[in-house]
Design a protein that fits this description.
Number of strands of chain B: 7
Structural class of chain A: alpha/beta
Number of domains of chain A: 2
Oligomer: heterodimer
CATH superfamily of the largest domain in chain A: Aconitase, domain 3
Strand content of chain A: 15-25%
Distance between the termini of chain A: 47 Å
Helix content of chain A: 25-40%
Strand content of chain B: 5-15%
Number of helices of chain A: 16
Structural class of chain B: alpha/beta
Largest interface: A-B, 92 and 70 residues
Number of helices of chain B: 9
Strand order of the largest sheet of chain A: 5-4-3-6-7
CATH topology of the largest domain in chain A: Aconitase, domain 3
Largest sheet of chain B: 7 strands, mixed
Order of helices and strands of chain B: EHHEHEHEHEEEHHHH
Shape of chain A: globular
CATH topology of chain B: Aconitase, domain 4
Helix content of chain B: 25-40%
CATH architecture of chain B: Alpha-Beta Barrel
């Protein structure tokens, strides 16, 4: 059993009681909600005649269903309009702070909370969304929950949960040029498998992780869940503190000093005990692309799609399914695969640094005529910043459509969808069958820089050929 | 989909029913309930949309469309079932179709907790036993009697010792799987914890 890791410390600090049978009652320091997984939770509160216990500890925004072309109200989609109205009503009734469209702070919930300074080291953070693991980049313990648990957090600010084991993933050396956090996390998931993280929190550590910016760290923690771990985190350091400083909701003046003193005390001890440790060399990672229907089915840009014989018995079943669904042949190169749609955005890679990197690749270049390319900033703040830097113009000049913030085609709950069996090069997090809105649509996950390169060439390309 | 859906309530110590086998590893919650069906403010109509795209692709040959499975209530799955999105809509859709318990090689974490929270016990068995059940179901219908008290599954021909998290088993037996009231019992402890947390005090700019 793990001891003295950051996970153990934060868990113990938030433990309210031991429940019968061995699970713990855990206090949730920050609760984030959005329109898709909260309405039924508010409904359940009403049925049980319960109130929201600490309305100040819950913050709401709208992201999953928002259109990215025309956000004027009412939305064209009646069901989407009904969902946003329900959230508006629930927030008003229960006095919950809601960052609506046009507030300047709306966006994907996992982009918004860090940029507001709400996400802080040492907190427990829960949200009815599996990518809540993103917030672990700040040394918080953050995990996705279902709607019944959203109800529990609203009613009690606590949930019942079994303590997770802790696996440290130690990343030696550093990433090479043209290789990004997305490549590293896809590589990790490929090495460990999509279910290795079940029952675990992942601690990402080592020189390669220390080197990453906060936004890159968010990309890593974001995809912990794709490796099966509902929680992933990184010990906080000076980069963490300076990212939080001067944000809208971050502590100020003498409170900042108090916060800093406490945050600096929060990290896994040198002699802490992990349930499991994995070591890998980040300098070996190359630009990585998924070829299949799980985020674990990835290869380096110059590799061939694996042969059935090269795979373990457990992986063969899903590989067969993947060849068929993706219409790929075993042994085929992934490079030069034609793409129809290029999507840059999502809670994995829709932040300003992602847009900057992609814009560098796109500058003075044109998107291939055969490709529909669009970029969806992660939040209104990201969009504003991009406009100030002229990044929106670079995208537009290249032929990318510049859209309004939201989750968009990561999960295709709005009208941004693949059609038929289109192939998308996507900076999002899931390549599941049908994920991007068409039951036969095909998704290739990659870094935003790689999506930009694919957009220019109209086919999967090595972004290193575009950067000096 | 069963029109007379009644959500489970109170103690759950036995689940008896016919098995429905769904072969495949890493079946994600997007496949269980595609995102377009999440545009709803209650769970009521999800049952008919469970596995919507997979069923459409298989044109009536999906296990959830086969006539012989229409009354099944125990779902048999492979490994990492329910991975991906945290949407509780996935187990809610399964439950509204008629599923009352799931037995598999392994489950994704969030899916598992969602099932427990809505009253669907999930059990694990080794791959070999799952394959044994799957093979049996290929030939004839399998009626299982699941006994949570002893973690046993019995049938005419097959018997298994099921694995289930002890905390989950106890919650079902005591009827406390619907956690809200148990958590609320500790109201004072929750308030104490709130007052002790260091970051509550220095976050005066919090909203």
């Amino acid at each position: 059993m793990s001891q003295n890791t950051l996970f153990d410390k934060v868990w113990d600090l938030h433990k309210v009681s031991s429940l019968p049978g061995g699970s713990d009652q855990i206090f949730i320091g920050l609760h984030l909600i959005h329109e898709v997984t909260s309405p039924q939770a508010f409904g359940a509160l009403k049925d049980k005649n319960l109130k929201v216990k600490f309305p100040d500890r819950t913050v709401a925004t709208v992201d999953h269903i928002v259109p990215t072309d025309n956000q004027s109200r009412p939305f064209k989609d009646n069901l989407a309009e009904q969902m946003i109205e329900t959230l508006e009503r629930n927030c008003l009734e229960h006095k919950i702070k809601f960052f609506n469209i046009g507030s300047g702070n709306q966006g994907i919930v996992h982009v918004v909370a860090p940029e507001l300074g709400l996400t802080q080291p040492g907190m427990t953070i829960a949200c009815g969304d599996s990518h809540t693991s993103t917030h672990g980049a700040f040394g918080s313990i953050a995990f996705g929950i279902g709607t019944s648990q959203v109800r529990d957090v609203l009613a009690t600010q606590t949930i019942a949960m079994n303590k997770l084991k802790v696996r440290q993933i130690w990343c030696e050396n550093k990433l090479s040029k043209g290789v990004y956090a997305k490549d590293l996390v896809l590589h990790i998931i490929n090495e460990l498998g999509v279910k290795a993280g079940v029952g675990f929190a992942y601690e990402f550590a080592g020189p390669a992780i220390d080197e990453l910016s906060m936004e890159e760290r968010m990309t890593i923690c974001n995809m912990s869940i794709e490796g099966g771990a509902r929680c992933g985190y990184i010990n906080p350091d000076e980069k963490t503190f300076s990212y939080i400083k001067n944000k809208l909701c971050s502590p100020k003046n003498e409170n900042w000093d108090k916060a800093l003193t406490w945050w600096k005390s929060l990290k896994s001890d040198k002699n802490s005990i992990y349930d499991h440790v994995v070591k890998l060399d980040a300098s070996n990672v190359e630009p990585t692309v998924t070829w299949g229907i799980t985020p674990g089915q990835s290869i380096s840009i110059n590799q061939q799609i694996p042969l059935l014989d090269d795979l373990s018995p457990n992986d063969k079943l899903v590989a067969k399914e993947a060849y068929e669904y993706m219409s790929f042949k075993p042994g085929q190169l992934i490079k030069d695969t034609p793409v129809d749609v290029c999507f840059i955005g999502s809670c994995t890679n829709g932040r300003i640094s992602d847009l900057r990197v992609a814009a560098q690749v796109l500058k003075d270049k044109k998107v291939s005529k055969n490709v529909k390319a669009f970029v969806v900033p992660g939040s209104e703040k990201v969009a504003t910043e991009a406009k100030q830097e002229g990044i929106d113009q670079i995208f537009k000049d290249s032929g990318f459509q510049w859209r309004e913030p939201g989750c968009s085609m990561c999960l295709a709950m709005n009208s941004d969808k693949l059609i038929g069996n289109q192939v998308s090069a996507s900076s999002s997090n899931r390549n599941f069958k049908g994920r991007q809105g068409s039951p036969s649509g095909r998704t290739l996950l990659m870094s935003p820089a790689m999506v930009a390169a694919a957009a220019i060439n109209g086919k999967v390309s090595d972004v290193r050929e575009f950067i000096n | 989909m069963k029109s007379n859906f009644i959500p489970p309530i109170g103690k759950i110590s036995n689940v008896n029913g016919q098995c429905i086998s769904l072969i495949g590893n890493d079946i994600d919650t997007d496949r269980i309930i595609p995102a377009r069906f999440l545009k709803c403010v209650n769970f009521d109509s999800l049952g008919e949309s469970v596995f919507a795209d997979d069923r459409r692709t298989l044109k009536g040959k999906h296990p959830f469309d086969l006539e012989e499975n229409k009354n099944a209530s125990i779902l048999i799955v492979s490994s990492n079932f329910g991975c991906g999105s945290s949407r509780e809509h996935a187990p809610q859709a399964l439950m509204r179709w008629g599923i009352k318990a799931i037995i598999g090689e392994s489950f994704a974490d969030i899916f598992y907790s969602n099932c427990i929270a809505i009253g669907i016990p999930c059990f694990t068995l080794p791959k070999k036993s799952i394959e044994e059940i799957q093979n049996y179901c290929d030939i004839q219908s399998l009626l299982l009697e699941i006994d949570l008290k002893n973690s046993l599954a019995k049938s005419k021909d097959l018997n298994f010792n099921l694995e289930i998290k002890e905390s989950s088993r106890k919650m079902f037996l005591s009827g406390e799987w619907d956690a809200t009231s148990t958590l609320l019992d500790n109201k004072n402890l929750i308030d104490n914890k709130f007052n002790q947390l260091p970051y509550i005090k220095f976050n005066t700019n919090f909203l």
